[in-house]
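Database export, one record per block. Field names are fixed; values are copied verbatim from the stored entry.
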Amino acid sequence: MVYMLLAEGFEEIEVVAPLDLLRRAGIDASTAALTNDLLIQGGHGITVKADITLGQIDFEAMEMLILPGGGGGVDSIANSKAAMDLILRAYQADKTIAANCAAPSLLAKLDILDGRRVICHPTVADEVSAGGGKIQHELPAVCDNNLITGKSAGYAIEFGLEMVAFLRNSEAAEKLRRAICP
């Protein structure tokens, strides 16, 4: 099971595009709202209805935790003790964590980058580097063992395909790429 956190102010493209790709690939993926309100407004005024709340996440069944970017969404996650505890718990249990755009800064705040290869939005690059991430500036998405990171909203499809490749295989990701970009 894959869970994507939805927090007020999230970057809409970074939620919809990867979630669509995961589901097209037959991966069981759900969105989880940080609050009890399932209707979460993105940073550009688009409201998305989450599938479940943070408290309903089945931690044992979780394979991957996805953290979309968007300054407001990342700030909302950072200000949620329950969300930050979940991220840390996922890391400690060796679950896969995927973070896009500004969201790798959350991993830096938790001091869990451990010298791993990452990519992030340039506005948080200094923070991510200071937190132990080795930034791969030239790549749109990076997979380093069980950590997947993406550069920005403009690379949301690459980020989604990187997760499909990780959860399925590179052939499944390439087949999906060809299906959406013939």
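Remark 1: DSSP finds seven helices and eleven strands in the chain.
Remark 2: The two ends are 29 Å apart (CA to CA).
End of record.
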